[in-house]
Amino acid sequence: MSDHSFEWGLCYNLSMMVCEIEGCKKPKRKRGWCEMHYSRFKAHGTPYAPGKRSAGDECMSPECEKRPVAKGQCKTHYYANRRRRKAIEDGKAPSFGPITFDELVVSETAAQKDREQCSVTGCSDFVKTRGWCGAHYQRWRRFGDPEFTPPEADKQCTVVGCTRVTNARGLCGPHYYRLQTYGDPEATPIRRTGMLPTFPARVCPTCGGAFDPGTSRVRKYCGRKCAPKRPGGSVNRRSVVERIGARDGWVCHLCKEPVDRQLYWPNVRAGSVDHVVAVSRGGSDEESNLALSHLTCNVSRGNIPIETCNSHHVLLK
Question: Residues 6 or more apart from 39 whose CB is under 8 A from it?
């Protein structure tokens, strides 16, 4: 391909990307026009409609040097005058805090335009665009006719005996939900309260007592006191006491007296787990280093070696 052919093709592609309006070099956006000409077509029906006239360089209000934005006024004075004009029309005092005006700074053309009514027969609203009010202008944009009357929607649910307002498909919210869930708007909903499964009574492996697991499928123990020890927990959990007590025949290894299984902490005669070799002297939590004792015997011993403890009889009965 020659250089001339490449340049010609490039120029042709660039020309296809600009606005089709003669003299406009802006990029094409919609319907072959740039954004500006498309906006004019949407507002006036033709892309050749004239653009907005310049509002001037200074606000029409005295001693105001702000840039005008509408009707020759800056944003502050434009909205202040509009509120003042509305108050005068309603017969109210035109007072707006620190901003007060003795005269309306608006042109007669603008005032006349604001008082102009919609061209549709029977409509008393003010003109907004193309001689129509906002409602009729939107009907023209959507349906092509400013006097088009949309069909009235059913306001009441179509289910016999239901007086609720419709939500979708002629049904109210509850009946539409039943249609989506059960396939029938008049179906009876399923009440899910109290539908959870219940399980029969079980026997706690620690204390041997029966308990109600309720709706739990995996619960094995009657409570926290009988649950097994977690890693790093105390050896005096009830599950450990029960296991060591069953191994030692429920006899205290210090005072050699029986331990009542029905007593629990903090009763001083309740069963507890004692370290044969105290932890402070290098003992571990292995079961071979654990033995059953009364709570009072365990506390009285402290970390005294077993031989010394028995020879000096330092135990509380």
Answer: none
Tens-place pLDDT, residues 175-215: 999 888 888 888 887 766 556 777 889 998 888 889 998 88
Distances (CA, A) of 222 to 214, 262, 304: 11, 15, 36
- Out of 64-68, 110-114, 129-133, 196-200, least confident range: 110-114
Q: Which domain holds residue 266?
A: 235-312
Q: How confident is the model over 250-286, as pLDDT tens digits? A: 999 988 999 998 888 888 899 999 999 888 777 888 8
Type of residue found at 27: P
Residue 213 in tokens = 């697991």
> Does one domain contain both 304 and 282?
yes
Adjacent-strand bridge partners of 70: 73
Q: CA 106, CA 173: separation in Å to the nearest integer?
A: 51
- Bond preceding residue 258 cis, omega within 30 of 0: no
Measured CA to CA, the distance from residue 104 to residue 116 in angstroms comes to 18
Question: Measured at the alpha carbon of residue 30, what is the angle toward residues 24 and 32, in degrees to the nearest 5?
Answer: 50
CA dist 295 and 274 (Å) reads: 9
Measured distance CA(92)–CA(80) in Å, rounded:
15
Q: To the nearest whole percent, how much of the chain has pLDDT over 90?
A: 10
Per DSSP, what are the bridge partners of residue 202?
211
- 209 and 173 in one domain? no
- Return the structure tokens found at 295: 């709570």
Q: Smallest Cα–Cα separation from 73: which of 104, 29, 30?
A: 104
Q: Give the angle 299-282-266 at the CA atoms, nearest 5°.
A: 20
> Six-digit token pair at 149?
């009357």
Residue 286 lies in a domain: yes
